[in-house]
Write a structure and sequence with these properties.
The protein has one domain. It is built from four helices and three strands; from the N terminus they run H-E-E-H-H-E-H. The chain has a three-stranded antiparallel β-sheet with strand order 1-2-3. It starts with a helix and ends with a helix.
């Protein structure tokens, strides 16, 4: 399942970037919804929000290593992993692979979505997938922590019940011997 999600994300991402590269000149803007959304063709040699600018090769290698780790995890655990975790990691992998391809092929990530109503950096579909996957991953971790905490509480309750049962048996034995 995760391979299909990754493949769809990668295909959609690269198709949109193909359209941008062939229809919007570099550093040019096309208004989509006035004062809301523009398409602006910008290269990004950095990471999110443009940090680590001009470190394209290093970012591609680091991202590739992280993606390989996620893929290895999914290959080994996808049958036992929760759907939420599989979808979260698939979104991250698909988006990251899309941006890695940009770095390798174009020398920079192709960003194009500009939100006019926010002072926010230009981004792309792959970034949206990575962000959505990260949000789902946080939800998964919080949900898992809550479930684990509930299981600990239940096991402590069982232990206390066992202690009470043992105490009652001892009292019964004492009362029966008198």
């Amino acid at each position: 399942m995760w391979c299909i999600i990754v493949a769809i994300i990668l295909l959609v991402d690269q198709f949109i970037k193909y359209l941008i590269l062939n229809n919007v000149p570099l550093m040019q803007t096309k208004e989509v919804i006035p004062n809301v959304v523009n398409i602006t063709h910008l290269p990004n040699t950095g990471a999110f929000f443009g940090i680590f600018a001009n470190n394209n090769d290093i970012l591609a290698i680091i991202t590739f290593v992280i993606v390989c780790g996620f893929i290895i995890y999914l290959v080994m655990q996808s049958k036992n992993a929760s759907r939420l975790l599989v979808v979260a990691l698939s979104l991250i992998i698909g988006g990251a692979l899309g941006n890695i391809l940009d770095r390798v092929i174009h020398g920079a990530v192709v960003d194009y979505v500009t939100l006019k109503f926010l002072n926010f950096p230009t981004f792309n579909f792959a970034d949206m997938c990575i962000t959505s996957g990260a949000a789902l991953l946080i939800i998964y971790v919080l949900k898992s922590a809550a479930n684990e905490s509930a299981m600990v509480d239940k096991s402590e309750a069982v232990l206390k019940t066992d202690d009470i049962t043992d105490d009652l048996k001892e009292l019964d034995a004492v009362a029966g011997s008198e």
